[in-house]
Amino acid sequence: MFQFFSLKETLTASMILFAVIDIVGSIPIIVGLKKKFGKIDAERASIVAGILMIAFLFIGNKILKLIGVDVNSFAIAGAFVIFVIALEMILGIEIQKNTESKSASIVPIAFPLIAGAGTLTTTLSLRAEYHDINIIVGIVINTIFVYLVLKSANWLEKKLGDGTLQVLQKVFGIILLAISIKLFTANFAQLFSSYVKF
């Protein structure tokens, strides 16, 4: 597996996941949850989120085969999900509703805040373009970064401020929008060529 390791692919996959997870943009939410539920277990939340992403990377494909859906079709569906997330980030609107829970470390921080529908869909969609090892390393890098952010959420909010966080959210929203369009066009072309014969 390690013979397929590519630094370029790893960095690209890491950046895509970083933009989708948007842990920096979620700092105000995390701080609010800390105030509401008390101490958040950063290690537990990060590990659970990382395991969910890696598990879905492998099991997700088998689930797709079971229901008769190919990776390209799922990647296109994933592109639409990323597109919606990007619109939320850029326009500051809420399309998907977040549910609250009595346990903050696992729900809603690990799932769905970190490893939510958008992240899991993106993780599986990346398989259409990148090798597994590069995606796994990308997930691990993001899991470590998530842990560091969760540990220092209060400090980061004070240092960055609401204005900076909003700007970062919009910047990553535009990046996600571009990623969703690229993901759609690349997979649509493959899907079109496999079904339409000239």
From TrEMBL:
It is found in: Cell membrane. Keywords: Cell membrane, Membrane, Transmembrane, Transmembrane helix. It is a multi-pass membrane protein. Its main location: membrane. It comes from Kaistella antarctica. This is UPF0056 membrane protein. GO terms for cellular component: plasma membrane. NCBIfam families: NAAT family transporter. The chain crosses the membrane at residues 12-33, 45-67, 73-93, 105-127, 133-150, 171-192. Belongs to the UPF0056 (MarC) family.
